[in-house]
Amino acid sequence: MDQELVDYMETALSTAEMAAHRGEVPVGAVIVDTRSGRIVANCGNQMIGRHDPTAHAEMLAIRAAGNMVGSERLVDCDLYVTLEPCPMCAAAISLARIRRLYFAAYDPKGGGVEYGARIFDQPSCHYKPEIYGGLQEARSAALLKNFFETRR
């Protein structure tokens, strides 16, 4: 596995851990400009802190990256996220035209890529990124499991 991919996902996992420390569901997202290799956005979930059900890590990262690159289209960007995106986030990924999606843990309950709505397979979806799931899956799944065990 390419060390850069691992490093970007490590950054996303560290961001997810920070979200957990704030009491948020531990999901982290990193967007990388593939032309430079530079991280243009790094966000964790903030739904509770912002009182905003749309403040998922991916949504916040897409907004931040769009502002950073000065475009609503992120065609030269890759997204690394610690959990399979939900349907809302998958739709935003499509609209942003993100080049590649890398995610860690699969989400059989709320996913929108490999599970659930499978947004990228719908006829109404006009763009599908390259998708790579399972990158550092065990670490992300353990982080999520531990977070929810402490809440029960």
Features:
alpha/beta, single chain, five-stranded mixed beta sheet, 152 residues, 20% strand, globular
Q: What is the count of helical runs?
A: 5
- How many strand elements? 5
User: Which value, in Å, is the CA radius of gyration?
Assistant: 14 Å
Low-confidence stretches: none
What is the average of the pLDDT values? 97
Order of helices and strands: HEEHHEHEEH
Structural class comes to: alpha/beta
Taken from the alpha-carbon principal axes, the silhouette is globular
State which percent range the strand residues make up: 15-25%
Fraction of residues in H or I helices:
40-55%
Give the strand line-up of the largest sheet: 2-1-3-4-5
Largest sheet, in brief, is: 5 strands, mixed
Question: What is the distance, rounded to the nearest whole angstrom, between the alpha carbons of the first and last residues?
Answer: 36 Å
What's the arrangement of secondary structure elements?
Elements: H1 3-21, E1 28-33, E2 38-44, H2 47-50, H3 57-69, E3 77-83, H4 87-96, E4 100-105, E5 130-133, H5 137-151
Parallel strand pairs: 3-4, 4-5
Antiparallel strand pairs: 1-2, 1-3
What report would you give on this structure?
It is built from five helices and five strands; from the N terminus they run αββααβαββα. It has helices at residues 3-21, 47-50, 57-69, 87-96, 137-151; strands at residues 28-33, 38-44, 77-83, 100-105, 130-133.
Report a brief summary of the structure.
With 152 residues, the chain is α/β, with parallel strands linked by helices.
